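Dear support,

I submitted the protein below through the web form. The confirmation email said the job was done, but the results page showed an empty box. After a refresh the structure appeared. I'm attaching both so you can tell me whether what I see now is the final result or a partial one.
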Amino acid sequence: MSTRDDWDNENKLTEYLAAQLMGSRLALLIGSGVSTAFGLPMWEELISKLYVSTGETPPIKKPERQAQDFRTKYHPHDPDGFVSAIRKVLYERVSVDFDSLRKSGTLAAIGSLVMASQRGSASRVITFVRLWVTRRFRGANMFSRS
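What the results page shows now:
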């Protein structure tokens, strides 16, 4: 993949990505839209729910700035508390049963890419929220079970 035209060529791109998958050198970068089918909020709604959980209205700013302000105000020296607050509003009133998960074509595709197999597997799955939290709190893990 040495030229821009290589990236625009679907066959070459497919071969390249397949080779990266076979060598476990492929990472998936996934945004919040993947999980909306299961009732999880998009980024803006998540931030709004954080503020509502404190009885406040979010300030009129970009969502990332709103999240920074929320963390600074409510969890300035407590990354685990901030992660806990995110987790609480993220999964509020979300009920996902196995059949729903199994029927999701998107989730099945992601699952097939991360499961070890002869055709290789993705080396990492990176989500925007995890990337944002990790970038600011080195080591805080919002996805671990509490």
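Response: this is the final, complete result; the empty box was a page-load delay. The helical segments are 4-8, 10-22, 43-52, 63-74, 79-90, 98-103, 105-114, 128-137.
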